Amino acid sequence: MSEYQYYEFCAVDRPLNARQIADLRAISTRARITATSFTNTYEWGDLKADPRIMVECYFDAHLYLTNWGSHRFMVKLPAALLPRETVAPYAAGNSASVHGGDGSTVVDWYSDRENGTDEEEGWNDGSGQCAALIGIRGELAAGDLRPLYLGWLAALPGLTRPDTVPEPPVPAGLDHLTGPQQALAGFLRVDPALLDAARTRTAMPPVRDEQGLARWIAALPPADKDHILYRLAREGTTGEGASLLRRYHRSQPAPAPAPPRTAAGLLQTADGLRPANSGGVE
């Protein structure tokens, strides 16, 4: 079987300039490079650069896929929108990590299948996969932490001491995952039984209360409204709407705290639920 590696990088917030494109062309003469993307496949050899550094310096998202079962997905956001201390509780084992510099936070998820191949899973081609997952970035920017929790669940089967790993805060809405979240769960091979175990303690999904949102915006101090409108007019930033929604969600009453669980407890609960899920990880 020949080797197959797929690399895709996406620039979301701002396009690459001519100097940056030239820098990337020096990394690969074969890659397809546009003002918003870098895509290449390898059957022999490998990318002559560190994907993490490429994301930190040039891009907002990265997807990596191989035909021997390795999956990797990264998203970068301004630290003001996604503080690293918010992500840290959801980084477990070798499957999820958080890093970044220069005012940014990079969430890095990794999944590796030791038995079987991506052809058997239907992941034999990376084309279009980044587009299915890129919505995760906007959800995190708006304060939706379900993608972080899914990444934590994906890491649990590989933990050596799950009894020592506390469960991070459980976000609302695990029963109603968005399209990008469903794609992320599949890409990271989240065990359906583990997800069912987690759902035994999750609130209803955050429902957009349009009237409540309108009242909340009307009650904002005039100085806040002026600042938001100024940034929209001057920068056209796509993050301003996400920032506003994040403030709104944080203003809502928090659910009552539940007794703590550990990774080991979730794995045990998943074992009890697994017969209803027709086996292990899909």
What does it look like?
This protein is an alpha+beta fold and 282 residues long. The chain has two domains: 5-206 and 253-277, no CATH class; 210-251, no CATH class. The chain has helices spanning 18-27, 51-57, 84-87, 118-121, 129-133, 135-141, 146-155, 179-187, 192-199, 210-218, 222-235, 239-251, 263-273, and strands at 5-10, 32-33, 37-42, 61-66, 70-78, 96-99, 104-112. Strands 2-3-1-4-5-7-6 form a seven-stranded antiparallel beta sheet, sandwiched between helices. A hairpin with a 4-residue loop joins β6 and β7 (104-112). The protein is flat.
Index terms:
flat; 7 strands; alpha+beta
What is the overall silhouette?
Answer: flat
Strand order of the largest sheet: 2-3-1-4-5-7-6
- Listing every helix as H and every strand as E from the N terminus to the C terminus, the arrangement reads EHEEHEEHEEHHHHHHHHHH
Tally the structural domains: 2
Work out the helicity level: 25-40%
Distance between the termini: 23 Å
Give the rounded overall mean pLDDT: 85
Strand count, sense and barrel status of the largest sheet are:
7 strands, antiparallel
Quickly give the structural class: alpha+beta
